[in-house]
Design a protein that fits this description.
76% of the residues lie in helices and 0% in strands. With 433 residues, it is mostly helical. The chain is globular and about 75 Å long. The two termini are 39 Å apart.
Length: 433
């Protein structure tokens, strides 16, 4: 491979255009077209791959619908009622607001499917609550919010899992089920760490919510708490496909916000639709670029070349998964998660198949790796998001997030080595893997 090689030129084009500020999706489309021209292939193939990929991928419709549901929740009072409920449950303990931060991420995970949506939505509110009256340092609140937001896309519904299903052909329903226990385990690990840190740093104890108020708070939050039941009940009850369930989730959020809570006007609804459309377009362009570039990768026979290269190391299934962890964690420090799912994972899947790796277990391991990458220095996206929201210095946020990062890496290792833990719930619902 030389600098004049079409594939090398395509890679350098992506890097160069990205450095110049062109969105990565656009850069991949341009670079794929350049590759086709230099290789003497029909340049219209790039457009053909994009159109065919988007037209035949019914599952992709779930992405904008989950984004819309999250936007409607954030603009309505559903999020506030969920926070009130979480505070009533765990707010009374030392470091209570920190525990609330994690619990709300677990609850909110069943609704948005996006770590960024969690951080920008409920995370912004938690940052304000935790730093009010100097209860917690801004850097700790920001670091914790970034770490807890990682839980969101692991527990269903999950936009990264939808995208993984697209590239792997694994069942979305079983992937959603497989994410439940690892997501809950991650939440419990974070909460246990908070209990330790709260005692060591003498974080404040909040005034407990009177027991007599718990039924009223629960009733107020009940419609919002029912969203995961509606969503997952439809999927596993055989009533809806995952894409149809995403549409039901968006409609449910709209109905609750407008007619039951009466917290969103029709103008607010328009704003939510417009905002979700902008986010969906950016995700759509990234997927379009990946579809075009994946054709280039296929023409170059990269998956088979990588499979042959890895076969030379004579790795076991466990050894391969550990290698994948190392690769994805390293890439997660530098690249956005969707890019890794669309470009890197398809290259690894043939080798995983060859070694007999279960595709559902592999998907959860990959998604957890990518989510951890969002809080991994130096370029973890959530670190920058929370720095912008909190005003805290990136270095101070990194210092606070490191204990949570190490704890999650240990959990990732356990999940990697124990596929039965991930697959227990899917098998309970009939998965044969």
């Amino acid at each position: 491979m030389t600098l004049a090689d079409p594939f090398t030129v395509a890679i350098l084009s992506i890097l160069g255009l990205s450095i110049l500020g062109l969105p990565i999706g656009h850069a991949m489309i341009v670079s794929s077209t350049i590759y086709l021209f230099l290789a003497g292939l029909d340049m219209g193939t790039a457009a053909e791959q994009v159109l065919n990929g988007l037209h035949t991928s019914y599952v992709l419709l779930a992405v904008p619908l989950f984004i819309l549901a999250a936007e409607l929740m954030n603009n309505g009072s559903m999020t506030l009622r969920l926070l009130e409920f979480c505070n009533a449950i765990v707010g009374r303990f030392r470091g209570g607001l920190a525990l609330v931060n994690v619990l709300q991420s677990i609850v909110f995970a069943g609704m948005s499917g996006s770590a960024i949506a969690d951080a920008v939505g409920t995370g912004r509110m938690m940052q304000k609550m935790m730093t009010e009256g100097n209860r917690y340092p801004a850097s700790f609140a920001a670091g914790l919010t970034a770490a807890s937001a990682v839980i969101g896309p692991i527990i269903p519904p999950s936009i990264p899992i939808v995208i993984y299903s697209l590239v792997s052909d694994a069942s979305i329903g079983f992937l959603f089920l497989a994410g439940v226990l690892p997501g809950l385990a991650m939440g419990l690990v974070q909460m246990a760490l908070i209990v330790f840190i709260a005692r060591k740093r003498e974080f404040p104890v909040e005034a407990p919510v009177p027991v007599r108020d718990l039924p009223k708070i629960t009733v107020r939050a009940f419609p919002a708490l029912m969203m995961p039941v509606v969503l997952l009940g439809g999927i596993y009850g055989g009533i809806t496909t995952p894409t149809e369930a995403a549409a039901v989730a968006a409609l449910y959020a709209l109905f609750i916000s407008i007619f039951l809570y009466r917290s969103v006007t029709w103008k607010g609804t328009y704003t939510s639709v417009l905002s979700s459309a902008r986010i969906s377009i950016s995700v759509g362009m990234l997927i379009a670029g990946a579809l075009a570039f994946n054709y280039v990768v296929t023409v170059e026979n990269i998956p088979n070349a990588l499979k042959a290269y890895i076969a030379g190391f004579d790795l076991s299934t466990t050894g391969f998964l550990l290698l994948v962890n190392a690769i994805l964690l390293a890439l997660g420090c530098l690249l956005e998660g969707t890019t890794i799912l669309l470009i890197v994972i398809p290259v690894l899947i043939p080798t995983a198949h060859e070694l007999g790796v279960d595709m559902v277990h592999f998907g959860i391991v990959c998604v957890i790796n990518i989510m951890i990458g969002l809080i991994t220095p130096p370029y973890g996206l959530l670190l920058f998001v929370m720095s912008s929201i909190s005003g805290a210095n990136i270095n101070s946020i990194v210092k606070e997030v490191l204990p949570f990062l190490f704890a999650m890496l240990i959990l990732l290792l356990l999940i990697t080595l124990t596929p039965d833990f991930v697959l227990w719930l899917p098998r309970l619902f009939g998965y044969k893997g």
